[in-house]
Amino acid sequence: MDLPSPTQLLQVALCVYGLGAAGSLLALRHEKIANLFGFGCSMVGACFGIGAGVLGLISGLGDARAAFELWPPLVPYLQLTVKLDPLGAFFVLIVSFLALSLSVYSFGYVRGFYGRKSVGVLAAFYNALLLATTLVFTASNAFFFLIAWEIMALTAYCLVSFEHEKSETRSAGVLFFIMSHIGTGCLILGFLLLFQAAGGQSPGDYSFDTFRTLGDKLSPGRRDAAFLLFLFGFGVKAGIVPLHIWLPEAHPVAPSNVSALLSGVIIKTGIYGLTRVLFDFLGTPPNWWGVTVLTIGTISAVLGVLYALMEHDLKRLLAYHSIENIGIILMGLGASLMFLHTHHPVLATLALIAGLYHTINHAIFKALLFLGAGAVLHATHTRNMEELGGLIKRMPKTAFFFLVGAVAISALPPLNGFVSEWLTYQSLLQGFGTTDSLVRLMFPLSGAMLALTGALAAACFVKAFGITFLAQPRSEQAAQAHEASPTMLVGMGVLTAACVFLGLFPTVFLRLLEPVTQQLIGQPLPAYLCRADGWVLGNTQELGGTVSTVGIALMGICLLPIPLVLWLLFGRRARTRIGPTWDCGLRGLTPTMEYTATGFSKPIRMIFKALFRPRREVQREYDYSPYFAKTLRFESHIEEAFVTRLYRPLNRGILRFSRRMRGLQAGSIQAYLIYIFITLILLLMFAL
């Protein structure tokens, strides 16, 4: 019996997602049925999607047999054709694996909405979002891609606005909607440029296969315009600085399983789009493309982690870290573009692998962290870290899973975040010798900023884990917290296992990326990347740097008995005295004596005060003397530079312009006819 092909598995996955969306709407009045059926379908569809992604990467899928018609053509130019190539299979694997773990988690998580919100609506839009995102990764022409892209944006908007009775949720949803459609407008213009260059005469001119033949045939001006439009359009969805403002607003207000999907998958659609266009459509890049992407990535990484350090909202902190990690991914992609320009395909392959490997790593550990934050929110009903604390005693399993995610995102060995950042370092450090121009200084500067980002990320998650899970509870909600349900723990456990596997055995997965590098660069994996039968990770040079995460883990395990041996030799006969914890001479420790999130981040806030522009307000109330305060109120605020200096003035300018343009709507038919006449004249002039 022959095994099913990747496209057959993909077809089943798409059908199951569609069935889950429709069935959940039919079960609106039955919460438990909607929960089990909706998220059960998404789990089953995800399993088929994982099979399609893995088999697609193994087989390569380089021919037309990887394509199928999703729906018979009814409208000219509208061909709903799906094609699974290696790049699409890689991203289908990401969305499917996350959908599996998130669906298992959702069984227990959505019970918190019983009797309060419609679980059927949540499950329906959740399945619709998975369906649309999978179609984005597999659409074979621009028309179908944009349709799937818009459906994805609309379903994501509905999920972000799920708890629409809250004002912050409504404003975050509107901001996401506006930014998404601004980005879509840029994508439409970019695809129109490619369509026009392809001839613009037949439906086939919208095909991605046609776009691949354009390459260096495009004029330099048209290529540069297309690059900027796609960078802006996909950059909005990816959340690059300064187009990131929707991301820290939308992630905190969405349900936590949706937040994990947004950060793990939806922003990766921007990375997919940039990779598809820059490496597959536009030919050999000029040097300034790579410099631009590398610069934006470096700025996004540093600013993302700096703003994350200032946050007290746990989910908002994680949202800013998504900006940071998107920056790290773009550093790999930007370096790869620069290597392609200087004709170093092996280094370009290494940098591309670093970016793509960090893409899946970030999807996994960031989803894990959002699920951990969701379990905390589910148990305490607050996202404010200042009101948490002591949760490690009440939620020990959640605390362990969150700690693993924190170690992974901090790029500490031997977990997966370390591997992809190590590969990024290797590509940046080797880039200095690829050219004699001053542009080569970009590589060590970006490497230094990546090191700074890693150090700040580690500090940030010491704060996030310590303030949230350690010490004493700071509120009644934290004191009454309870462990997450079994299905929630299983969902987090699957992602934890993936973080460990991708960290300890990276070469196993890196071999799956060879069809992707062959497709995009025409280059197999570097010869020295996998050494010692896959137990050691190298780079592009025979005598270059190597690392073995398995060796690091084994070394750590071997060192564990040393403290026990020392205790047996020297400390077993020592006298042990047990006494109270030092409490500064007071009558006992209280939560008010603990380190706060504000206090932890103050040194960083003072060092980077030119960026944050901190301000504080102190209010005191006295009884009789100014030396004895009855109450003391302290508030600290920082400035989000791009919001206050760019978007708010832009918003005010648009509103002023709109008020002035209101006069054109005079209610006069004659005036409207004049407008139409002038528009026709201008269009005729443009056409001629």
Could you provide a short overview of the structure?
This protein has helices spanning 6-26, 31-59, 86-109, 119-138, 142-160, 167-197, 208-214, 220-238, 247-253, 256-281, 287-309, 314-341, 345-380, 391-394, 396-409, 416-430, 442-469, 476-479, 486-504, 506-510, 514-520, 549-559, 561-571, 597-607, 609-612, 641-661, 669-687, and strands at residues 67-75, 78-83, 530-531, 536-537, 615-622, 629-637. The chain has 688 residues and is mostly helical.
Order of the strands making up the biggest sheet:
1-2
Tell me the fraction of residues in β-strands, as a range: 5-15%
How far from one another are the termini? 63 Å
Q: Please provide the count of β strands.
A: 6
- With helices defined by DSSP (H or I, 4 residues minimum), what is the helix count? 27
Class computed from helices, strands and strand pairing: mainly alpha
Helical residue percent? 55-70%
The biggest beta sheet, please? 2 strands, antiparallel
Note poorly predicted spans: none
Shape: globular
Radius of gyration: 27 Å
What do the pLDDT scores average to?
Answer: 89
